[in-house]
């Protein structure tokens, strides 16, 4: 069983136009609306990979109702507490001419101590039934920055492995609680180590430096260049198959889902890296914020290359 915690979910609205120009009228060529937030994306992909999971977090308002309905229609088991206000609506505009995306991320509703305590109360019994807890995404306004660190400590007390995928101070504080695995992207890793990471050797060194802080496994995703994974003295470069990328939104979450599934099954981290890389490539094949299909993941899995890094 895998538990995902998404404190600040969103509905992701993707709009496709051609020749985006500020201040001009555009005819929308394609649009998508999907339930989102890092942990929700992980839960959706974990479910597609056939692994039992339950998604926890907060929802609010009509957008929250829409997300809950969409997850139920997909068959994703979830338990969300209701907040006053409105769940985020994030908007990404993709320009077909350039292939570039411009995103607008909302803040989300306020959360108070009472709601946070209720969520912890509801999650506690499930920690005794799961093997992996995924803590992912940004925090709601009102949540303390060490909340992920707190959940990592709760999970460790129950013998539960943890995956942390966030940014900034919540990531730094979460690392102090010694999660099993962290999965920053390149920009997040640069902020974490305080320096530029222009090439693969510099990313490898950053992963090793982060390991020294007490994390068991560090996976740094690099988009089309794949991911670097460090565990102990071993380092691997996961190289995805070449695909025609329609969107990179959700690829990192798909990587986390593959890692979580393999951890839940007790497999070696390399198998999780392979599955997650295939899942990320499959997600890049579909437009907007949609996720990869099991058929595409299966097709791409043999094409993933895992190379040891000396």
Q: Layout of helices and strands, plus pairs?
A:
Layout: E1 2-6, E2 10-17, E3 30-36, H1 38-48, E4 53-60, H2 61-74, E5 78-83, E6 88-95, E7 101-104, H3 113-127, E8 132-136, H4 147-157, E9 161-165, H5 168-176, E10 181-182, H6 186-193, H7 200-211, E11 217-221, E12 227-231, E13 234-239, H8 251-264, H9 269-284, H10 294-300, E14 305-308
Helix pairs in contact: 1-8, 4-5, 6-7, 8-9, 9-10
Description:
- With 310 residues, this protein is an alpha/beta fold.
- The chain has a single domain (2-308), classed as 3-Layer(aba) Sandwich (UDP-N-acetylmuramoyl-L-alanine:D-glutamate ligase).
- It is built from ten helices and 14 strands.
- The chain has helices spanning 38-48, 61-74, 113-127, 147-157, 168-176, 186-193, 200-211, 251-264, 269-284, 294-300, and strands at 2-6, 10-17, 30-36, 53-60, 78-83, 88-95, 101-104, 132-136, 161-165, 181-182, 217-221, 227-231, 234-239, 305-308.
- A ten-stranded mixed β-sheet has the order 5-4-1-8-9-10-11-12-13-14, with helices on both faces.
- The longest helix is centred in the last third of the chain and has 16 residues, at 269-284.
- The relative contact order is 0.14.
- The model has no long low-confidence stretch (mean pLDDT 94).
Brief write-up:
This protein has 310 residues and is an alpha/beta fold. Helix content is 38%, strand content 25%. The strands form 2 sheets. A 10-stranded mixed beta sheet has the order 5-4-1-8-9-10-11-12-13-14, with helices on both faces.
